[in-house]
Write a structure and sequence with these properties.
eight-stranded mixed sheet; globular; binds guanosine-5'-monophosphate
């Protein structure tokens, strides 16, 4: 998505540890117009799939998921991060190691809001090692629901998550794919 790539080049900042900061338009201050274009792009990619729910993980996925869900006319469900082990009968849970914070969170979703009739589009801001996405996929599978695919705003394609999850047979659509990233600049995949 050209508009998104241009914005990353203009406002993205590369930090040590392969972290790209996009706080100026996606992760802290949010450019709602850009987010709407992103949501429309996800809708175009997945509109024939009969999506019933858009799933993401708190916190930075929520705004993206809300605008995407509005395009599809379906609810958003976001997995909550919990520091304590959740063994409640009412929750689906999965353990996820955070790329940016290095801690392991149990992520949880109430069983009330996801079941075997759901066709789920997972969305998130970044795909790096793939841990967040794998945790969300596990939760959908625990519910007996179907993962229709994943819509990712920025995939760091030099990290292994995208390849691993595609090799699991999950359709992953990333709107900007970064091939390489150094202090001197960014390079996108073709
Ligand atoms: P993964 O689980 O694929 O390693 O990382 C995905 C999660 O980590 C995303 O939900 C995102 O919040 C965060 N993340 C991964 N890489 C980056 C990055 O370069 N910049 C920012 N801002 N967040 C990232």
């Amino acid at each position: 998505m050209r508009l998104l790539e241009e914005r990353i080049l203009k406002d993205g900042k590369v930090y040590p540890g392969n972290v790209l900061k996009v706080d100026g338009f996606l992760n802290h201050q949010i450019d709602v117009g850009l987010l709407r274009q992103i949501a429309k792009e996800f809708y175009n990619l997945f509109k024939t799939e009969g999506i019933t729910k858009v799933l993401t993980i708190e916190a930075s996925g929520i705004a993206i998921a809300c605008m995407t869900a509005e395009e599809f006319g379906v609810p958003v469900l976001f997995a909550k991060k919990s520091k304590t082990k959740n063994i409640s009968d009412d929750l689906y849970s999965s353990s996820v190691e955070s790329f940016t914070h290095g801690v392991v969170n149990d992520i949880v979703v109430s069983k009330e809001y996801l079941d075997e009739n759901d066709k789920v589009l997972i969305v998130d801001d970044f795909l790096a090692q793939g841990n967040a996405l794998k945790g969300l996929i596990e939760i959908v599978h625990l519910a007996g629901a179907k993962v229709v695919g994943a819509g990712i705003v920025i995939e760091k394609a030099f990290q292994p998550g995208g390849e691993e999850i595609r090799s699991m047979g999950v359709r992953v659509e990333s709107l900007a794919k970064i091939k390489s990233m150094t202090d001197d600049g960014l390079c996108f995949c073709d």
